[in-house]
Write a structure and sequence with these properties.
- The structure is a single chain.
- This protein has about 120 residues and is an all-beta fold.
- The protein contains no helices and 11 strands.
Length: about 120
């Protein structure tokens, strides 16, 4: 089974940028869709962005559209999340997830912490 490993999290000041990576241990094309979710302390996990691997079609949570960009590198079997103009409320653990159908995810990474300071 293909596994997903996130990296790129860290501490950044408000207004700064980070790029998260999600590397598949095998062929990322085995997933129909790959997505980023996040979970802040004491809050439910929420959808951030998704990309359909073959077509490259993307979707975003409305509140993040324009600040966050999801992309993929076919050669590296990796999905990225470029996050710009970060805000303290973006502080969360960010998870990468893969699935075989839109809205259905059965493979999850371990998460990477993003902390945005004021």
């Amino acid at each position: 089974q293909v596994q997903l490993v996130e990296s790129g999290g860290g501490l950044v000041q408000a207004g700064g940028s980070l790029r998260l990576s999600c590397a598949a241990s095998g062929r990322a094309s085995e997933f129909y869709i790959l997505a980023w979710f996040r979970q802040a302390p004491a809050k439910e996990r929420e959808f951030v962005a998704a990309i359909r691997w073959n077509s490259g079609l993307t979707s975003y949570r409305d509140s993040m559209r324009g600040r966050f960009t999801i992309s993929r590198d076919n050669d590296k079997d990796t999905v990225y999340l470029q996050m710009n103009n970060l805000k303290p409320e973006d502080t969360a653990v960010y998870y990468c997830a893969g699935g075989q159908g839109s809205g259905s995810y059965d493979t999850w990474g371990q998460g990477t912490q993003v902390t945005v300071s004021t």
